Amino acid sequence: MATAQLNLHEFNETYVRGLQAQDTTIEAHFVSYFSRLLQGRLRRRLACSESIKDVQQETFLRALTAIRAKGGIRQPERFGAFVSSVCNNILRESYRTRARYRAMDDSAVDPPDQAMSPEGMLVTAEARKKVQEVLCRMPLKDQKILRAVFIDQRNKDEVCRELGVSRNYLRVLLHRAKQQFAANYKKADCTAKHKETIAAGQRERKAPSQAQISKLTLISGSRISGSSVLAS
Question: How far apart are CA 131 and CA 147, in angstroms?
Fold first, then answer.
């Protein structure tokens, strides 16, 4: 049945270009179409519904990233097969990850004390302020999604109804907004550190050492004496 669904849609260059341009209609079709296609296959291999959603989401994100990378998809008509291969690769990775977790559980140790120190609370407050500043500089749609999910912690079904999108498409929009936020946050952090370095250099230049002050005083005094001699 899944193979028949794969052949229901004929992919072409126009479709791929729409995904590259982040056309919302084509993106919504992409998520809806492959959600149905992949779900049947994943149900046979994964028992947990959350694991199925995670693999689906990672498949969508990697496929979209590949499309928008330099070179993109060279055979648009084989886009369906490409997405299927991406899903298979992620499945194999998930098997290896679960095997590592089982090994880690066997050698688990007690976690360290998670109580936050006063210094940690100060850093958290500063981080919150920076988060708000970065959010305010982002597109309104990205701001709305990030605030609703991470700050207001609203129910995702409610957010989906408000935006008029499915849960799977919300995951795509949320991931894209998170990537943009991370890039903006890193840029703001680098800018702040650069300004701090410049300010520190200026403070050092404005505050000479005692030895420098003494040397400057001697030089200034000798110049005054020389001027007096010439004047006489």
Answer: 11
CA distance 119 to 124: 9
Written as six digits, the tokens of 160 are: 């989906």
Q: Pick from 108, 126, 115: which is nearest to 188 by CA? A: 126
**pLDDT tens digits, 186-231:** 887 777 666 666 666 666 556 555 665 565 566 555 544 444 433 4
Amino acid at 191: T
Number of H helices, E strands in the chain: 10, 0
Helix ranges (DSSP H) in the chain: 2-6, 13-20, 24-45, 49-68, 79-106, 118-136, 140-146, 156-163, 167-206, 210-231
pLDDT in tens, 117-131: 555 554 566 777 787
**Are 20 and 66 within 8 A, CB to CB?**
no
The structure tokens 């209609």 sit at 25
Tell me the pTM. Answer: 0.53
- Domains in the chain, please, with CATH? 2-103 (1.10.1740), 126-203 (1.10.10.10)
